[in-house]
Design a protein that fits this description.
There is one protein chain. The chain is 45% helix and 11% strand. The protein contains 16 helices and 8 strands. Strands 1, 2, 3, 4, 5, 6, 7 and 8 form an 8-stranded mixed beta sheet that branches. A hairpin with a 2-residue loop joins β6 and β7. α7 runs antiparallel to α9. It is globular and about 70 Å long. The protein binds 2-acetamido-2-deoxy-beta-D-glucopyranose (11 copies). One 2-acetamido-2-deoxy-beta-D-glucopyranose (NAG) binds next to α3. GO terms for molecular function: acid phosphatase activity. Pfam families: His_Phos_2 (PF00328). This is Phosphoglycerate mutase-like protein.
Length: 433
């Protein structure tokens, strides 16, 4: 009886055991600030294609790896440390739970801002190695990076992993950059040439949601730290400290300070920001319109027998979210609300869709028996992502495929849009160049 129950319980213990390290336990809850981790494979889906299928063409869009906070976010963390530093006597007197004892030693921050971190370099290097191992039949000959330092550096680390350190000297390899500014049409940063686009569409939602979920946390922390007088911005800083210490050092004392539901509310804030500024919550058809530039390019390339077999391109979480929006994937009905409630089953999930070093990988596939005609599949962060707008058969649902023709038909909005046409100008305002 004893032996029997132990054997029964063992697999459960393994399944329920906390991930091996602290960051793994939380890495799928920090939205687009999560370190890279593979997305869960939806139940009933196969990662491997049938044996008679062959990948013929690939379009890969990589997000830059883990980075320091943006300068605008770093201020929250710094202000928190000043507040705690100036109140060191009150901190010394406070009766703190184990998870907050680290404050007695004084918490300082040396985080930089904006640039790729050491774990970010490793993420991209590994992706380059894994891409080589996964697709030995291809030799990619070009890499395109959005013209921002952390994106360029990410593409370089990928190249080191993929080609080896002599890659700048491989004559067949072209490394190019596309500027990220308001006079360069780019499917990596399409919002920059859409004058009516405004970051505040997302930011305003996070301010509203922050005014709802932050005060109870601030109150709880202040009850543990009498005399310190933390503000909601300081609480926000502590949440950022958790995410960005992880991004820079793989570990943060702050993550254990918060309850699971507090972290989930922070995760929701990050989803609201991305959905609001780069997704479905943009006004009218602005979200799909911006993402259409990417989808249009994908369809053009996969329809063109003279196109390159492999495209390796590097950009942002925003690039991926706008593309998903044009594709009609990860769409919530009703839309995410800035006043909650937090739907735990929402489809728009930055934690699994656009973590640091996210990988949106499109495969064009030919099979000798399982399917007739060319197929397409999206592998997002190492897991097939169901193409719900064009999947038809049970086999489609198992492998995440669609016939390429059905995919093209489902995305006729995207192929109907070209930058600077009347649809673009009426949604975005005339770009004026
Ligand atoms: C940080 O502190 C400065 C000086 O007190 C203040 O002006 C600023 O608004 C604070 N920023 C944040 C994000 O709390
Ligand atoms: C006290 O606060 C000021 C400004 O807010 C900051 O410059 C200073 O470093 C803080 N002192 C400590 C010990 O953190
Ligand atoms: C890829 O390039 C390497 C080195 O130049 C070469 O040895 C290999 O045969 C190439 N593979 C393919 C599939 O072209
Ligand atoms: C590229 O080739 C030049 C000239 O042979 C050499 O000096 C340089 O070290 C090489 N760079 C790399 C990264 O291999
Ligand atoms: C681009 O931005 C600059 C400065 O931010 C501004 O002066 C310029 O008018 C903008 N150009 C266009 C075409 O939007
Ligand atoms: C964001 O909120 C501010 C202040 O309420 C408002 O003036 C502005 O129009 C809003 N911006 C957007 C894009 O919603
Ligand atoms: C606590 O901070 C709030 C907001 O900054 C301020 O209004 C209040 O006066 C402060 N209270 C104390 C006791 O410092
Ligand atoms: C919180 O930070 C925001 C953004 O920097 C700032 O506008 C606001 O004044 C800050 N609030 C407080 C109470 O410091
Ligand atoms: C097909 O791809 C080739 C090579 O990139 C390009 O020169 C050509 O213009 C493309 N054709 C179409 C119809 O897009
Ligand atoms: C896309 O196709 C659907 C169904 O055939 C059609 O109703 C719709 O008007 C088309 N949209 C565009 C933008 O062509
Ligand atoms: C849209 O705006 C661009 C840039 O100002 C202009 O060149 C183009 O002619 C406009 N398109 C239409 C259909 O008016």
């Amino acid at each position: 009886m004893f032996v029997w129950s132990l054997l029964t319980i063992l697999p459960l213990l393994v399944a329920a055991a906390p991930a091996s390290t602290k960051e793994e336990a939380i890495w799928d809850r920090l939205g687009n600030l999560s370190p890279y981790h593979p997305a869960p494979v939806p139940s009933g889906m196969n990662v491997e294609l049938p044996g008679d299928c062959k990948v013929e063409q690939i379009m890969y869009l990589g997000r830059h790896g883990s980075r320091y906070p943006l300068a605008s976010e770093l201020v929250y963390i710094q202000n928190l440390t000043y507040k705690l530093g100036n109140a060191s006597a009150a901190v010394a007197r406070a009766k703190l739970p184990k998870s907050m004892q680290f404050l007695k030693e004084g918490y300082r921050t040396t985080l930089g801002h904006d640039d790729l971190t050491a774990p970010g370099r490793l993420e991209l290097f590994k992706h380059g190695v894994n891409f080589r191992l996964k697709y030995p039949q291809f030799n990619a000959t070009s890499i395109l990076a959005g013209g921002q330092d952390r994106v360029i550096e990410s593409a370089q680390w990928f190249a080191n992993g993929y080609y080896g350190r002599t890659w700048p000297n491989i004559s067949s390899t072209v490394f190019s950059e596309i500027a990220e500014n308001n006079v360069t049409v780019s499917w990596i940063t399409p919002m920059d040439t859409c004058p009516k686009w405004d970051y505040n569409y997302g930011n305003n939602a996070t301010i509203k949601w922050g005014s709802i979920y932050l005060p109870p946390i601030t109150k709880r922390l202040n009850s543990l730290l009498p005399g310190v007088n933390l503000t909601d911005n300081d609480t926000h800083g502590a949440l950022y400290a958790c995410a960005y210490d992880l991004a820079a050092y793989d570990v943060s004392p702050w993550c254990d300070v918060f309850t699971t539901s507090e972290i989930q509310n922070f995760e929701y804030e990050l989803d609201l920001l991305m959905d609001g500024a780069f997704g479905y919550n943009l006004p009218g058809d602005m979200g799909p319109l911006l993402g259409s530039l990417y989808v249009h390019t994908l369809i053009d390339r996969f329809s063109n027998s003279s196109a390159e077999p492999v495209y390796l391109e590097f950009g942002h979480d925003t690039t991926i979210d706008m593309a998903l929006t044009a594709l009609g994937l990860a769409k919530d009905t009703p839309p995410l609300s800035a006043t909650g409630p937090v739907n735990p089953n929402r489809k728009f999930r930055t934690s699994t869709q656009v973590p640091f070093a996210a990988q949106m990988l499109w495969e064009k596939i030919a099979c000798s028996s399982t399917f007739h005609g060319p197929q397409i599949r999206l592998v997002l962060n190492d897991a097939p992502f169901p193409l719900s707008t064009c999947a038809q058969s049970k086999t489609d649902k198992t492998y995440g495929t669609c016939s390429f023709d059905a995919f093209v038909a489902a995305n006729n909005f995207s192929t109907s849009v070209t930058w600077g046409d009347s649809a673009w100008n009426s949604t975005c305002g005339n770009p004026g160049f």
